[in-house]
Amino acid sequence: MSSSNNQALKTLRNRFLTGLAFVLPIGAALGLLIWVFNIIDGLLKPVIEFFFNWYFPGLGLLVTLILIYLVGLILSNYFGKQILGWVDKILVKVPIFNQVYNSAKQVIETLGVSNKVSFKEAVMVEFPRTGMHSLAFITNETTNSAGEKLYLVYVPGSPNPTSGFLELLRENQIERVNVSVEDAMKTLISCGLVFPDNVQAIDVGKGDLHPNKL
């Protein structure tokens, strides 16, 4: 086979792979959305048909969203909060199920759905070793015996941000980035699949991130 034929095949392969790299993620995302839609919609289809004797595609999903809103509305008052606390105490005691329930609950609270205190700021730190950078969150501030400001920084795991490491760092061990806590959390939970433009613009290594003894 001549070199011109080899070049033509190489060009053809590269263009195909480029097209595949573009189409495949879109197809996978659409497939996931369709799969979730069919599951949620299908769960309520027989119930709606039984009571109303009619149905159209998407009605099950719409009813689910309305029910979720109504549950949130009920739980937002005093008696609803009492019920929520009672149910929560029961669910955390159910073997096996409680592990999934606790993980999902912690992730939702971390994302800021609850009214609990959220992270102060998203930053970059050198972790797990020099030369490697990780997204992290400032959780609090303190001072050492010399009056120098120190930062409590949480380095979350991915895709489960509820498991990670807490570090005590100086200012020069932290690199400030123009990334919101929400965008940083989306990136971590999706293992980088959801990657906002402002996260892509991060320049690592510009800060003085060399560890110093406290």
Automatic annotation (TrEMBL):
Keywords from the named record: Membrane, Transmembrane, Transmembrane helix
InterPro entries for this protein: COV1-like
Transmembrane regions: 20-40, 52-75
Keyword Transmembrane (UniProt): yes
Keyword Transmembrane helix in annotation: yes
Name of the protein: Transporter
Lineage per the UniProt record: Bacteria, Bacillati, Chloroflexota, Dehalococcoidia, Dehalococcoidales
